[in-house]
Specification:
Pfam families: AHSA1. Helix content is about 25%, strand content about 45%. With about 140 residues, the chain is α+β, with helices and mostly antiparallel strands. The termini are far apart.
């Protein structure tokens, strides 16, 4: 498995970024890689051993899947580490500096899709998060 790191610098406070990243009512609004997809449901038990789930579906109803995992580490306003249900590891860090919050996400790739496609998909979701957080 290869590791890929993506990042975004968000013009917002760390408190707001953390809230929008971890609250299901916000996750369903930003968690998509393209306009023809959406997240219809999100659950988040933000604690070590807690589980999360985002239901991602094509808007035309042709395909959908649950993005699920279990938290390995939760350091409020600093770091989240989790293991996806397929055993891939993900680490997300949050750093506030000069009125912006940098979100850095490192994930292990899967073998079904090209690495470049995975990187662009995860980056698109992070970019949507940035736009949503800066607008609301």
């Amino acid at each position: 498995m290869e590791q890929v790191t993506i990042k975004a610098s968000i013009k917002s406070s760390l408190n707001k970024v953390w809230d929008y990243w971890t609250s299901p009512e916000h996750i369903v609004k930003w968690n998509t890689a393209s306009e023809d997809w959406h997240t219809t449901k999100a659950d988040n038990d933000l604690r070590v051993g807690g589980k999360f789930m985002s239901r991602m579906e094509a808007k035309d109803g042709s395909f959908g899947f649950d993005f699920e995992g279990t938290y390995d580490e939760v350091v409020p306003h600093k770091r989240i580490a989790y293991t996806l249900d397929d055993n891939r590891k993900v680490v997300v860090t949050f750093t506030e500096k000069e009125g912006k919050t940098e979100v850095v996400e490192t994930f292990e790739t899967e073998t079904e899709n090209p690495v470049a496609m995975q990187r662009s998909g995860w980056q698109a979701i992070l970019d949507n998060f940035k736009v949503y957080t800066e607008k609301h």
